[in-house]
Amino acid sequence: MSTVKLDFAKESANRIKLLVKQNNSYVLFSGGRDSLVTMHLVNDAAKKIHKMISVVHVDTTVSTPGTLEYVQKTCYQLGVELIVVRPKIDFFTLTRRWGFPTVTRRWCCYHLKIEPLKEFLLDCPDPKVVFDGIRREESPKRATYPISGVHKHFKCLCYHAIFEWTSEQVHSYIAEHGLKENPLYAKGFHRAAECWCTSYKSVKQFLMLKQQFPELFQKFVDNEKCLKTGGSALFRNGKRIYLRDL
Predict the structure, then answer these.
(1) CA 82, chain centre distance (Å)
(2) Cβ contacts of residue 100 below 8 Å, gap of 6+?
(3) Domain containing 223: what range?
(4) What is the tally of structural domains in the chain?
(5) C-alpha angle 75/135/78, rounded to 5°?
(6) Mind listing the pLDDT tens digit for each residue in 110-153?
(7) Pick from 114, 161, 206, 226: CA 20 to 30 A from residue 16's CA?
């Protein structure tokens, strides 16, 4: 690992240690690489000052099969408390009510992720801090985020622990510490814990889902049949794309 990468890890760890010392700490762990590194960093910092952290995983009810099992196994191996939260109503029930999410009508993020987290965190004791694995280079929108601040929904401090890290540094940290990645990466899912909300999914991704996880794919096809308006799972460039035709 280069000196630059070590400096990034050390700088992040020092800030994390201060926040953990002053707050009850919760780490969001999706099952992907970035949140894996974040969890390891925060847990390592907490152990050095004899503090405990809680790891929170959101089961969106439509994640890639195997994600929850990986999350559970990883938390067990690291010896951290895992809390799993879920939406009150599952994704497929909501799609039968409202239709599939689209780029311009993206109801999935709030109802499947933010709302269950919000309800959980509101009951957690203050002072508290939430750590996540958001990184600047992931998208132009995320590049505009502040590295920390009071979350508008959670009403507590949220810190993006590896915000300035590059993908290369994330990979290097995982290798350096011998962390086990989600095996879904090896199956071709570049965002291993993917929530299969249809807003930004492509035909290619759904073909991969059909091949590797046909039961989950069939749920989407069955839900298309339930929509009275003739809605489709995918809607791109003004055209409906029916998964039953794939």
Answers:
(1) 15
(2) 198, 223, 231, 232, 233, 234, 235
(3) 201-246
(4) 2
(5) 15
(6) 999 999 999 999 999 999 999 999 999 998 989 999 999 999 99
(7) 114
